[in-house]
Amino acid sequence: MPTLQHLDALEILDSRGRPTLLVTCQLTSGQQARASVPSGASTGSAEALELRDGDPLRYRGLGCRRAVEHVRGVIQQALSGRAFTSQQQLDAALLELDGTPDKSRLGANALLGVSLAFARACALEQGIPLYQHFARAAGLPLTHLPRPMINLFSGGKHAGGQVAIQDVQIMPLTATSTDDLLAMTYAVFYAAADLIRERYGMRLLRADEGGLAPPFSGSEAMLGAAVEAIERAGFKPGVDVALTLDVAASHFYHDGHYQLEDTLLDGADMVDQLGAWLRQYPIVSVEDGLAEEDWAHWQLFYQQSHRQALILGDDLLCTNPRRIRHAIDQQAASALLLKVNQIGTLTEAAEAATLARAAGWRVVVSARSGETEDDWLADLAVGWGGDHIKIGSITQSERLAKYNRLLFIEQESGLPLRPVE
Q1: Domain with 107 in it: what CATH number?
Q2: Residues 6 or more apart from 361 whose CB is under 8 A from it?
């Protein structure tokens, strides 16, 4: 039975240069582990509170010293010396200590850092890889590696808003291993880089998650360029490589209308636009195609398009069991984008995944725009049987750490890549 001996935390910087937390957990067995906490740019209103200091003279108010002190102080004092039979028991203690529905007392970033560091320390104590520990703790078999959705072009909040939609991603379909999939991705990415250099005279300027971000004239131009890049790389769009789309529609939704570049659309018009893209381009997943509270049009989009593509909820669901149950009841989605820091602890995120699975949904385990070189996300996606994983592009060390971890797990475990259905 793991006994927690000591907790510590440090304010570090994420991939955008903004503060986040690194938490250290030491057990009485002597095992010690660290985990760092990601942070999002495109955030849903129902996300758990990421505690920031609010001091405008330091990191423009984004400092995390208060969250650090909560780990070192009230959380350390309450948990030190206690034995925990499971991850669920540790997380329950954290939630009781915070006592708020949105983690606003201690901060979801502080709670998640402790939750993750404890899990990693327990894996070390058992002498097993972290992905095996995640699977064992969740009572799940290890069956496959998730098939990545990989950023190619970015707009929206990830790239200064030069186009409305946030990300166009690629998903290689014919690859039978992570190794092959990344090689196919490399070919498409650099074909896209050649394309934008020719068309825009532009070098490789990258958005938050490593996607290319040229000054496209609009969303249609971004989608068209993605198809052209696939073809330039020698692949057949929709056969060898498909597109997945992160619309992040909440961020261009105001007063009941969607401002899609120069066009103002109501909810029904937006559903029609999404349907037109599905017919015109080889898109197999649409994330946040409608605003997070536009439930009626989520239902309409699902009714019209769920047989053509995954209807994937991010801001709509916020990895929140209450919102997931509502979306299931309303038939508003067919897949969950799982971001652990949206809800605050591993146990709550596992509940969200279980609900989605029970409804027949797919689960897409996702990184955030603000990441670190920590690679626990790859282990989580494998251990929890994620259908897909969203890490970002194949550039920038905070993204590559996770891809490289998937390559290592593939070699070590011999698990197959999830087949395309």
Answers
A1: 3.30.390.10
A2: 328, 333, 334, 335, 336
Domain that holds residue 268: 147-413
pTM of the shown model:
0.95
Tell me how far CA of residue 243 lies from CA of 141, 160, 173, 196, in angstroms.
Answer: 29, 22, 10, 18
- 135 domain-assigned: no
- Could you tell me if 182 and 85 lie in one domain? no
398 and 349 both lie in a single domain: yes
Verify that 322 and 364 share a domain, yes or no: yes
Instruction: Tell me the two tokens of residue 67.
Output: 């969250």
Taking the C-alpha atoms of residue 109 and residue 21, their distance in angstroms, rounded to an integer, is 7
Q: Which of 36, 37, 34 is nearest to 48 (CA)?
A: 37
Is residue 209 annotated as part of the catalytic site, yes or no? yes
- Residue 421 falls within a domain, yes or no? no
Distances (CA, A) of 256 to 249, 250, 265, 273, 275: 12, 11, 9, 16, 19
Q: Are residues 204 and 341 both part of a single domain?
A: yes
Catalytic choice (339, 371, 390, 398):
339
Question: Domain boundary at 94, 127, 160, which?
Answer: 127
The number of domains in the chain is 2
Kindly state whether residue 420 falls inside one of the protein's structural domains.
no
Mark whether 91 and 163 lie in a shared domain: no
Q: Is 236 a catalytic residue?
A: no
pLDDT in tens, 352-406: 999 999 999 999 999 998 999 999 999 999 999 999 999 999 999 999 999 999 9
Tens-digit pLDDT profile for residues 108-122: 999 999 999 999 999
d(CA 420, CA 36): 32
The catalytically annotated residue of 47, 103, 157, 209 is 209
